[in-house]
Design brief:
Elements lengths: L1 H36 L8 E2 L8 E7 L6 H11 L4 E5 L1 H6 L1 H9 L3 E4 L12 H19 L5 E2 L8 H9 L3 E3 L15 H9 L7 E5 L6 H16 L3 E2 L2 H5 L10 E2 L2 E2 L2 H7 L11
The structure holds zinc ion.
The site of zinc ion has 5 residues, from loops.
């Protein structure tokens, strides 16, 4: 009788211990996924953020260049030794080519945001390709180098948009879900600052606008954001620079009998939102 009871008790404890062990493994993984999910999705063809432990982030500005906001933004970035990426509209770049040249001379990265802010999803593959190619050529003529990155207006994409961008060797870059400053709604300077600073994580991509309306609030918020992020230890880099910060992969893979260096393996996995599912 005594033996039976202790056996039952042992079984009960064993089950409890097993449950605790499963929880101990599953909970941190679940938490990591929840955490990662707040920064972007898991489509391997899109860049939402870069997985890194280093305190680096990329500020991005869409819809410019604008003759009123962009030069002020460039001055603020220079004063804080910060780099950023400008996703320009072809038509605005054609109107203000000197500002695009200023951006490039200041070490900023220029990305393609279509010619006239079209919703690429609503057009055919051929029309999308035509628009992106036209903007690539135009920016190439202005700064001597066509962009490596594109951001679809409204963040609107589908498989066709991704395919077209891929065919043009353009990386599709969105932004970390918690890092949409919503500056285009003019919500007030402190709202823009807190949206960006309160949720920033290493590897994040932050969304601002330097065109498409009055950007006084963006201009006023930017020095405060840069002061806070710098005090937190962040370095602000371009998106292409950020991509080189992806966490190094421990395995060196073989491709067609040839060893692929770790950095190159890491670079191919700089796919934001991967969350370990796209290996
Ligand atoms: Zn836009």
């Amino acid at each position: 009788m005594i033996v039976t009871i202790s056996l039952r008790s042992w079984r009960r404890h064993w089950r409890l211990a097993a449950a605790a062990a499963i929880l101990a493994v599953a909970l941190p993984a679940w938490w990591r996924d929840v955490h990662a999910g707040s920064r972007g999705g898991s489509n391997p063809h899109l860049v939402w953020y870069v997985k890194t432990k280093q305190k680096v982030a990329a500020l991005t500005f869409d819809d410019g260049p604008s003759p009123t906001a962009t030069p002020k933004i460039l001055n603020i970035l220079a004063a804080h030794h910060a780099r950023a990426t400008f996703f320009v509209l072809g038509q605005a770049a054609r109107q203000y080519p000197e500002i695009v040249r200023q951006e490039a001379r200041a070490g900023m990265e220029i990305g393609n945001h279509t010619y006239a802010h079209i919703n690429l999803k609503l057009h055919s593959k051929e029309q999308d390709a035509e628009d992106l190619k036209h903007t690539q050529k135009l920016v190439g003529k202005i700064i001597g180098r066509a962009p490596d990155l594109m951001r679809p207006p409204y963040g609107a994409y589908d498989a066709s948009v991704i395919t077209v961008a891929h065919q043009l060797k353009l990386k599709v870059v969105l932004w970390s879900w918690t890092e949409d400053s919503k500056d285009w709604t003019n919500p007030g300077v402190s709202s823009i600052v807190s949206r960006v600073v309160n949720h920033i994580q290493p590897g994040d991509i932050v969304l601002f606008h330097d065109g498409g309306g009055n950007r006084d609030q963006t201009v006023a918020a930017l020095p405060l954001i840069l002061n806070d992020l710098t005090a937190m230890g962040y370095r602000l880099v371009t998106v292409s620079q950020l991509l080189t910060y992806s966490a190094p992969q421990p395995v060196v893979r073989r491709r067609q009998g040839e060893l692929v260096p770790t950095e190159r393996v890491a670079a191919t996995k700089t796919i934001i939102g991967c969350r370990g599912h796209c290996r």
